[in-house]
Amino acid sequence: MVSMNYDVAIIGGGNAGLSLAKQLIEKNLSNNIIIIEPIEAIEKKANWCSWQENRAIDLSDDSIKGLWDEWRIIDSQSSVHHTSSKYKYVCRDAATYLNNIETYLQNNGVRILRDKAVNVSKNNNNKIILCNSETIHACHIYDSRAPEIDDTALKQHFVGIEYELEKDVLIDKYATLMDFTGSQDDGLHFIYALPLSASRVFVESTVISKQLNASAWYEDQITGWLERRGMKTNQILSRESGVIAQEQIRITNQITHRIGAGGGATRLATGYAFHNIIRQIDLLIKNIESGDYDVPLVMSKFTINMDLLFNKVLINNPSLSIGIFTQTAKALTGDQFSEFMLNQANINIWYKVIKNMPKSPFLKELTKVIGVRW
């Protein structure tokens, strides 16, 4: 079996892995890098969304599918509508975004091995990745693969479908982040919808619960939402699904450095990870520049524990769950909501959020975790 040596080996060619390699090249921190990823970037069909400051948006970025400065959260009794002059909600095509980075990396001498990492081990100071086709030796290994999620963990799980609509169908100009008006019989459920053009819409059925639903269940919710809004479809353009842990992931392999979702970049209360991954890699690169290859925390312990407390209240008080989301949105302006979701909330924003939460269930859950270190 072939054996190769590298300064940095990255397992997984998703957002975290490719972003790390790109910054290592741009900062001239290493030119001996390998990425182990079995799937071509262009095959990774998904929509990645996050808020971004207007001044930082590159309108020539061909991965951007949609931009919105208006969004809403609705339930059966009310609707919260946000507008922002500072931020836009940005939807990117993951395949295009990743393929652009892969092309840049390959043009700059980074090797991308289309294989799977079967095992990772250590022999003295030598770190070894066993793949199907060869063995990789590296000084530093970063593992960006999605973490395993325990069956009993609280999860956000979803199915999303992008449709081509009939040409005469009028759709909203704003993003619908949460529409709670559908079924709530199988977990906390909402529809997420992005009007990508006059004839294309992405609709996702998302559930927060410990148990996954059958695939057909999510599709039925999507179909019902479209029918209630009078949207008729011509064809399905793409389909995606996923499961995101909303509890902390236990890391058992201490040989590698974990980055991305497995390295704590997912916001536990929301499931958002794109902007946290970018921030995590920025901080990591600063560490590497000073000779420290450890991955820094991208979220404060305060935020982590607040999110864990929030999720405990959600799962133990299902009748209050929808109101908690809508009350949070009502308490904030569009700019403040964006910063809260971006993990950039200041003390004033946190005060508004906490002030508008139902006090009794939060205090009840807090008393159960008094021993947790904050």
Secondary structure blueprint with pairings:
Elements: E1 2-11, H1 15-26, E2 33-36, E3 47-53, E4 64-68, E5 70-74, E6 79-83, E7 87-93, H2 94-107, E8 111-113, E9 117-123, E10 126-131, E11 134-143, E12 155-165, E13 175-179, E14 188-195, E15 200-209, H3 215-228, E16 233-245, E17 257-258, H4 274-289, H5 301-316, H6 321-331, H7 334-341, H8 347-355, H9 359-368
Parallel strand pairs: 1-2, 1-11, 2-8, 5-13, 11-17
Antiparallel strand pairs: 3-7, 4-7, 5-6, 9-10, 10-11, 12-15, 12-16, 13-14, 14-15
Characterization of the model:
It is a single chain. The chain is of the alpha/beta class and 374 residues long. It is globular and about 60 Å long. Helix 1 (15-26) runs parallel beside helix 2, helix 1 (15-26) runs parallel beside helix 4 and helix 5 (301-316) packs across helix 9. It has helices spanning 15-26, 94-107, 215-228, 274-289, 301-316, 321-331, 334-341, 347-355, 359-368, and strands spanning 2-11, 33-36, 47-53, 64-68, 70-74, 79-83, 87-93, 111-113, 117-123, 126-131, 134-143, 155-165, 175-179, 188-195, 200-209, 233-245, 257-258. The strands form 3 sheets. Strands 1, 2, 8, 9, 10, 11 and 17 form a 7-stranded mixed beta sheet that branches. The protein has a 7-stranded mixed beta sheet with strand order 6-5-13-14-15-12-16, with helices on both faces. It has a 3-stranded antiparallel beta sheet with strand order 3-7-4. The chain is 29% helix and 32% strand. The protein has 3 domains: 2-45 and 93-147 and 252-289, FAD/NAD(P)-binding domain (3-Layer(bba) Sandwich), CATH 3.50.50.60; 155-245, Alpha-Beta Plaits (2-Layer Sandwich), CATH 3.30.70; 301-368, no CATH class. The model has no long low-confidence stretch (mean pLDDT 92).
